[in-house]
Amino acid sequence: MQEARQNDYFIKLENLSKVFYVNSSRGLKRTRLTAVNNVSFDIMRGEIFGLVGESGCGKSTLAKIALRLIEASSGSVFYEGMDIYKMKYREAQAIRREMQVVFQDPYDSLDPRLSLEELMAEPLRIHNYGNKAQRRQRIEELFLAVGLSPNWLSRYAHQLSGGQRQRLCIARALTLSPKLVVCDEAVSALDVSIQAQILNLLLDLKEQFGLTYLFISHNLAVIKFMSDRIGVMYFGRLVESAATETLFDRVLHPYTHALLSAAPNPDPQKVKKRVLLQGSVPSLFHPPAGCVFHDRCPHARGVCRVQEPPLRELDDNHHVACHYAGELELKLDI
After folding, report:
1. Residue 204: CB partners within 8 Å, gap ≥ 6?
2. CA 139 centroid distance within chain
3. 110-129 pLDDT, tens digit each
4. pLDDT 10s digits, 196-231
5. Partners of 31 in the β-ladder
6. What is the DSSP pairing of strand 180-184 with strand 99-102?
7. pLDDT value at position 8?
8. Distance CA 319, CA 226 (A)
9. N or C: which end of the chain has fewer CB within 10 A?
């Protein structure tokens, strides 16, 4: 079953790493910073894969190297069986239209000097889509699909609300009929009521256009609502991944356990026991030996301090990077 699954992936990330070199204050020494460390997972066609973790864990950097917006230091990305890191510029440009992204902040991702029509038409012109009338028709169709009025095309981004701007960003990401859309904290800058509208819109568009999503967020409630499968990142590494129901029903990694215990429960009558982690996230400039979580893990033992646990499959398609996964009692007291 696992073998058949690997042959059926839509996009596959294999041992991806990204290293940055940062100059010291005096500029005399370059310090190595590993933002993403040996991350591997695959996404099936038509699936929503949720990537969750606290701020600074490498989620956005991973998304950028998966799309080759920045170059990976090592590893491969296979898109429909093709390694995009072995493609030449023209080959990569040909599939660029099939991989789009919706960024976190709709205020910063829109050029204030361009009208809404110009913003929408820009990717169509770059990829030589039709004539002016055909581009206009495509833009109007997408505006209607995301709940915007085509009568607004002469307006500018500053004349829209936050939710309307994010709808515009989603429409622009769909102009070239992509197959994969990366949503990088696509609702975190919005009010809660607007978040719900945008999430439902994304689900509707997925069905309408046959999309596959890589959905990145630090909000567990959003990730649970949206995702078919979830990957949990900590300190640049993938520490656990599983189907959404499986992850919430049977937690295997202590960090995932702590993360889920911190999520608020909408029912005030139900009391949840929090797992409080000691210490803070280690410095990327000075990563700890062994398991990167051992300094904060309440279950850490001797081997955790000296040996890094590999990401292994413990149950069917449930992967975890913990030496003692399956042996620990990690129950969510909800």
Report:
1. none
2. 26
3. 899 999 999 999 999 988 89
4. 999 999 999 999 999 999 999 988 989 999 999 999
5. 22
6. parallel
7. 67
8. 20
9. N
Other C-beta atoms lying within 10 Å of the C-beta of residue 143: 21
**3-state SS, residue 303:** helix
- Identify residue 13 by its one-letter amino acid code: L
- Residue 329: CB atoms within 10 Å: 6
Type of residue numbered 95: I
Q: What is the DSSP string of 79-123?
A: ETTEEGGG--HHHHHHHHTTEEEE-S-TTTSS-TTSBHHHHHHHH
pLDDT for the residue 89: 80
With CA atoms as reference, report the closest residue to 334 among 255, 287, 268, 246.
Answer: 268
The edge-to-edge listing of strands for the beta sheet with 74-79 is 30-44, 9-23, 74-79, 82-83
Query: What element of type H or E holds 39?
Result: strand 30-44
Query: Which helix or strand (DSSP H or E) is residue 170 part of?
Result: helix 162-173
pLDDT at 3 over 50: no
In the numeric block, the tokens 């398991």 are attached to 291
Q: Which contacts qualify for 192-196: CB closer than 8 Å, 24 or more apart?
A: 194/162, 194/163, 194/166, 195/222
Quote the mean pLDDT of the chain.
90
Alpha carbon distance 220, 217 (integer Å): 8
pLDDT above 90: residue 24: no
> What is the pLDDT averaged over residues 174-187?
94
**Which pLDDT score is estimated for 268?**
65
Distance CA 12, CA 44 (A): 9
Q: Taking the C-alpha atoms of 171, 176, 180 and 185 in order, what is their torsion angle to the nearest 10 degrees? A: -30
* Backbone angles phi and psi of 25, in degrees to 5: -60, -30
Q: What would the mean pLDDT of 94-103 be, rounded to a whole number? A: 90
pLDDT of residue 267: 66
Residue 240: how many CB atoms within 10 A of its CB? 27
